[in-house]
Design brief:
2 strands, about 260 residues, 11 helices, about 75% helix, mainly alpha
Length: about 260
């Protein structure tokens, strides 16, 4: 067998054995590069989308991820811009206007450097001015901060709830007369209603009780006692305390209603 044939067979065997391994390693390396670029782009997008809200959680978290995601040799300018920006954020003694202006300059420098490394080209003026921030969001943030400050002072006892007492405005004479007339009309209506109810009311309870007693008295058994009762009334009228009067009165007693 020729020497070249042996070399060819050996290379073929090596290719069959090492080809899949090399392909897997190449694919894995490409995936790692793509994943790292996606993370770096994620940090850049978060900073760009929240550059008008420097105190938002999204902006702060993206700033703190710069040291983790930008670690290559080509990222040295980004790290330098981030450190300069971070050092300025702790500076005190400046007026609010000057501090806000210089902070925006550092932020724009950082964003422009990151965009250049990631393949984007932005102008500093565009980065500083082309950011939409509605005034309503500023008003809401200011209101919430004022409410938190006031509530904190109230709970700490350094603030109090203001209470104002306003005098009751006098009622005009014409309005007072109208209210008095309306009140009198309502009172007359109430009295008319009560009078109407009295007129339409059925027999009173006392009459009903009297009628029921009459019914009980006019039952068959009581009808038999009626002559004795008449005699008892006559005797009681002449001799109230006699024994005959008491005996006949007992015979004339109706159950549940007393003597007739």
């Amino acid at each position: 067998m020729a020497t070249w044939q042996i070399v060819f067979d050996v290379l073929t065997i090596l290719a069959l054995l090492g080809g899949p391994v090399i392909a897997v390693r190449i694919i894995r390396r490409l995936d790692d590069r793509k994943e790292r670029r996606d993370r770096r782009l994620g940090v850049f997008r978060d900073l760009m989308s929240s550059r008008a809200y420097m105190v938002s959680w999204q902006h702060v978290q993206a700033l703190n991820r710069i040291d983790v995601e930008f670690t290559l040799d080509e990222d040295k300018e980004i790290i330098a811009s981030w450190k300069a920006y971070l050092n300025f954020l702790t500076v005190k003694g400046l007026s609010n206007e000057e501090w806000a202006l210089r902070r925006a300059e550092h932020e724009v420098e950082l964003l422009q450097t990151m965009g250049k490394v990631l393949g984007y080209s932005f102008d500093k003026t565009d980065l500083m001015t082309l950011a939409y921030h509605p005034q309503l969001h500023t008003d809401i943030d200011t209101f919430q901060e004022e409410m938190r400050t006031a509530f904190r002072g109230l709970m700490a006892g350094t603030r109090a709830i203001p209470i104002f007492v306003y005098p009751t405005p006098p009622v005009p004479p014409q309005r007072a007369m109208e209210v008095r007339v309306q009140h009198n009309r309502q009172g007359s209506r109430s009295e008319k209603g009560r009078a109407t109810r009295k007129k339409t009311q059925p027999f009173p309870a006392s009459a009903m009780r009297t009628n029921s007693s009459v019914v009980r008295i006019l039952s068959p058994m009581n009808t038999m006692r009626l002559p004795f009762c008449v005699a008892a009334m006559a005797i009681r009228t002449r001799k109230p305390g006699s024994g005959i009067s008491q005996l006949i009165t007992g015979l004339c007693t109706v159950e549940g209603s007393g003597p007739f």
